[in-house]
Amino acid sequence: MQRLLSGRDGAPDDAHPAVVVGKLHNALQITALNDAAAQFGLEPGLPLANARAICPEVRVFDADAAADAALLDAVADWCDRFTPLVALDPPHGLLLDISGCAHLFGGEAAMLRTVCAALARQGFVVNAAIAGTAVCARTLTRAARGRIVPAGLEARAVGPLPVFALGADDAVTRGLRRAGLKTIADVAARPPHEITARFGAAFMHLLRQALGQADAPISPRRPLPDFMVEQRFAEPVATEAVIARALSALARMLVAAMERQGKGARCLQASFFRSDGAVRHIAVETGRPVTRADVVERLFRERLDALADPLDPGFGFDLIRLSAAHVEIVVQEQRGLDAARRDNDDVAALIDRLAARLGGDRVVVHLPRDTHLPERAVMAVPAQQAFAAASVAAWPVRAAGEPPLRPLRLFARPEAIDVPLATVPDGPPRHFIWRRATHVVARAEGPERIAMEWWRQGTDAPTRDYFRVEDDEGLRFWIYRDGLYGGERAAPPRWFVHGVFA
């Protein structure tokens, strides 16, 4: 409902009753509603027909789980400014691990007020709690407001709360109430084996986490970066010059932090937090570990200049963060006067700049693959990964003074040719017709017999015999016969042109 209230065209308002409906058990039921609809006695789970009978003027909106999840992701991105350990707690919750970072915001109480006030300014109705376990904090938010539980006092904090605050299944909650267990303290007072036997081990584990007797780590949306530096601004900044200076200062800080541990960055990410809650992440990757601040600045400058959707500061950025998501150990080398090594460094730097501007998947290099099939013998990999992939296989060494065994480039699809006459059983054609032109074979070398990969194609895949042929006009072709004369197949062999020599 808050997502709809923040919309523009046709959005509901608090003055008129509005509900969000979804299909549950083959019936349209209310899943969310605003305050005006609640004043008429409407509630979640009520069928839409009953709601229209109670309040005929109610406005109805369809549920959109994907849009709700996208909005929750956007809020989670904004919460990254407080801690990088942010986890989703669907359908409408977030879990933040603030261990060791609350003092940066004036303590836990001040941090709680800051987060809630900022989200309220963005139009959200928010409730938060701080506790030693995630389940305890979630339980408090369902029945209390703004609670901070000291370590070891989780059981005392959640004990007076009703059992529905645990968030268990409706069947479990109804069973607890029928048994006369109305509060969490009542449930905790019963022997654990009785609760486990009646309601299951999963509920008992949930209860122990709410009481602070057990804990489970949260699963952050993004892995924690290896190195991270950030700069906060007292007033939001929007000018390009200030943003560039901030990135430059952060690059120097990040490189200095990595240098102390002998590390270099392979993947860098800049995060721009706008004052209105929007967050923009821009990442660049490198082929070799980066250990210089000017290289980091140049890569991000190339990336920002090439953005199809330019960086929009809106009302300004109040936080800019630079992180190294992936680092490697930098091996110190004696460069000396080796010109080849310097050329390799220049090529790697050029590849990084092109990848930052065009995208890493658009700058590729062709590497050999360990297979005998011509169409599979080459693979295209991102150029920044070429150093790791180059060890898979080596290009065959060409004999000095000998013509190439295969064309440099092959056709995307072999083109069929008509061979009226060929030497049987394993010889080349006497002449062939390709693209409506007849070519008389003057010279030929072969065959080079290649069997298909039986584990991919099946046992009935035909055998290919390749020939290097030259016609009477000096044109050279790489052709093959698909199948053998006199073989077990009823159909005669077919001929194809797979490539043309220069």
Descriptive overview:
It is a single chain. This protein is α+β, with helices and mostly antiparallel strands and 502 residues long. The protein folds into five domains: 7-63, MutS, DNA mismatch repair protein, domain I; 67-210, 5' to 3' exonuclease, C-terminal subdomain (DNA polymerase, domain 1), CATH 1.10.150; 227-352, Dna Ligase, domain 1 (2-Layer Sandwich); 363-395, no CATH class; 410-500, no CATH class. It is built from 16 helices and 17 strands. The protein has helices spanning 2-5, 35-38, 48-54, 65-79, 108-121, 134-143, 154-158, 170-178, 184-189, 192-199, 201-210, 240-259, 293-305, 339-358, 386-389, 454-457; strands at 18-24, 27-33, 59-62, 86-89, 93-96, 227-237, 263-274, 279-290, 317-329, 364-368, 378-382, 410-422, 429-434, 437-450, 464-471, 476-482, 494-500. The chain has a six-stranded antiparallel barrel. Strand 15 (464-471) and strand 16 (476-482) form a beta hairpin. Helix 10 packs across helix 11. The protein starts with a helix and ends with a strand.
Share of helical residues: 25-40%
Question: Helix/strand-derived class?
Answer: alpha+beta
Quickly name the level 1 CATH class of the largest domain.
Mainly Alpha
| Sheet having the most strands | 6 strands, antiparallel, barrel
Tell me the span between the first and last alpha carbons: 67 Å
Strand content: 25-35%
